[in-house]
Amino acid sequence: MHRDLANRIDAVETLLAERLHVRGGGLGAKLRAGRRRLPRRLGRQAQELVHARAMLDAPGAASKLDAHRIGAICARLEDYLRSIPAGKYARRDRSALLGLAAWRVLVLLVAIGALLVWVGLPSD
Q1: In what helix (H) or strand (E) does residue 77 lie, and over which residues does it extend?
Q2: Calpha distance 47→31 (Å, rounded)
Q3: Confidence class of residue 102 from pLDDT cuts 50, 70 and 90?
Q4: Distance (Å, rounded) from C-alpha 59 to C-alpha 81?
Q5: Please, are residues 12 and 78 in contact by the beta-carbon 8 Å criterion?
Q6: What does pTM read for this prediction?
Q7: How far is Cα 42 from Cα 45, in angstroms, rounded to an integer?
Q8: Does 124 have pLDDT greater than 70?
Q9: 3-state DSSP call for residue 118?
Q10: Closest to 38 measured CA to CA, from 12, 69, 5
């Protein structure tokens, strides 16, 4: 039973990485990285999975887990994450990166133009 819960939590962690395009060491880090991409209710419930994962590592505490509740949370998160198109957030990240690069080039060109005007190089 506990191995099954651990496998389901791992599956949720994998789906978080794939669908929300987040990186991080463990489940907690991935949830922090993708907290704005999850609905609040699901984000709070996903935090329970972090605590459940820690409890599963300790045999004494694992017996106190509500397996049905953790299983239901995993099912809700899996359903939500599967409903997100595969590359949705990857495309957004690439677009944001390109926008940031364009902004930096624009600022650099304006700074070079201001410097040239200040020094007086483009004089007639």
Answers
A1: helix 67-83
A2: 8
A3: very high
A4: 30
A5: yes
A6: 0.69
A7: 5
A8: no
A9: helix
A10: 12
